[in-house]
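Sample pair:
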Amino acid sequence: MRKVFGFGETVLDIIFKDGQPRAAKPGGSILNAFVSLGRLGWEPCFVSEYGQDNVGRLIDEYLVENGVNTRYINRFNDGQSALAMAFLDDDNNANYTFYKNFPDERLQELPEDIAADDIILFGSIYASSREVRRSVVRFLEMGLERGAVIIYDPNFRRAHLAELEELKPRIIENINYADIVRGSDEDFQLIFGADRPEKVREIIDDGTKLLLYTQNTDNVKVLLNSLEASIPAERIEPVSTIGAGDNFNAGIIHWLLKKGTTRAGLQLLQEEDLGDMAGTGIKFATNVCLGFDNYISHDFARDILTG
């Protein structure tokens, strides 16, 4: 079976609404996607770090229970597992405050068993941070050399605008590694000042990358070579939008695996395929917005597996 690897941060999300804590869930953009993929039986391999403390043990047990391979988790004693306070606004979008205490030596163990057409997902500020950059590049170089499908989600937040000058060269380097780039209109506006997917494509590549451009409650646009597809988002009353984009990514990976789409096969996709791929991502994202979980529900996973 093709393997799925993800490189990302782990936090415990404590979710507040109207000034009161409503839920506490293991989080982080790649983790959110991988719990969903684990519930679908894909056994994704998560490359991350958290402590040997009570929070780390809670997260570790949760990942194992949900089918995530934790072989490449770097556990540490010198420091504490990260916390994220997520404050939901009137539209149930989140603003975050983070609490982090990491050791000096980080992410020493990385996968060595990446093979052709395996899938790598990485992204967020974590993938561009100076502290883990050497490990990120080593991981991506290995994936590139061995012919993996590499998916990048910049997931850039307004709170990091003051760091953009430092981060932007690394974000561009991350894009250059990727076969598929999935980002929101806000991501690309903040990073590049680009307000249209066509403009984004002009900036990031020569048209051979698969670009998935999400627009909150508006259409998702998919661009590849000369092809373009536009798929409407589903209209719902969200409970929480935490994890929506992350699980859109999970839906894309699930689609690639179910269809058997290889790295070379990406260039053979047709407009109908692009629409079907984006539609799967939308379904995953919509399900996550219906509750306080950061991942697709068990019932939704069962429906996908039996449908």
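The chain has a mean pLDDT of 94.
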